[in-house]
Design brief:
Layout lengths: L1 H6 L10 E5 L5 E5 L4 H15 L14 E9 L5 H12 L7 E2 L3 E4 L2 E9 H10 L2 E3 L2 E7 L50 H5 L18 H10 L12 H7 L1
Helix pairs in contact: 3-4, 6-7
């Protein structure tokens, strides 16, 4: 931070009002206030990226508020690349800011697709009442915002940097909880390994509405303390041993 302050004068970028806080991922978040905040944030991110381009321990990210949708009523000739280009052109954003999933059959011989883009772009398309892609007029169905989820243990309520679980599930499918494939290719029934390990109903994907916030060691320590025998020693368990270590 000291190097950034000395080599990137904010006044040169027209930035006079900043606020710093720790993000939930553990990184340092710089918030820029005032007029043209978005443009100034882009300039600052560019300068910092150039400054630290040789540093493997520093990563500069320009956070963007995004919205997720399901785009429906697309004919079978429409491709993911066409959708991405149409969204970027209509919303006037770079292609890199648009994310599109695989097209899936929806019924009636038409397809649907998952779509994520910056909020201003999404609002523009919503006001249009849909998105024209080729001969198809796709309808947008807004999706609920995703909850904070750890990509290491798959539980909700925290991120990888704050994860206290002794179990690493980062190589498992988010939908069925098994190894060897990703959710995008999964055809199995939903099964949450986090809830299953806690003896809770698990007929949903990891991070779904049925999941309660959980961070391994906190709950495990409480459970171990509740079963302390009269001798005062704690029965050995994976989580309890991690706490002791």
């Amino acid at each position: 931070m000291g190097e950034a302050r000395s080599k990137v004068p904010l006044a040169e970028l027209g930035i006079v009002d900043t606020r710093l806080r720790r993000a939930q991922t553990g990184g340092l978040l710089i918030e820029i206030q005032g007029e043209d905040a978005g443009t100034k944030a882009d300039s600052l991110a560019e300068r910092l990226s150039s400054l630290f381009k040789e540093r493997e321990d520093v990563r500069v990210i320009r956070p963007i508020r995004r919205m997720e949708f399901r785009l429906v009523d697309l004919d079978e000739s429409v491709t993911a690349d066409e959708i991405k280009e149409a969204v970027a052109a209509r919303g006037r954003v770079p292609l890199s800011d648009v994310r599109v999933g695989p097209l899936r059959p929806r019924g009636g011989g038409l397809n649907s697709v998952w779509l994520q883009c910056p909020e201003p772009c999404a609002e523009t398309i919503r006001k249009d009442g849909g998105l024209q892609v080729g001969w198809s007029r796709g309808r947008l169905i807004p999706l609920a915002r995703r909850r904070l989820q750890c990509y290491r243990c798959l539980a909700v309520g925290h991120t990888r940097v704050n994860c206290r679980s002794a179990v690493d599930r980062s190589n498992r499918c988010f939908k069925c909880g098994k190894e060897g494939h990703k959710m995008i290719d999964c055809r199995a029934s939903p099964h949450c390994p986090v809830c299953a390990a806690r003896n809770l109903p698990a007929g949903h994907r990891a991070g779904g509405d049925g999941c309660a916030p959980y961070n391994g060691l906190v709950r495990a320590t409480v459970a171990a303390a509740a079963t302390v025998p009269e001798s005062g020693s704690v029965p050995p368990s994976e989580d309890a041993m991690v706490v002791d270590g």
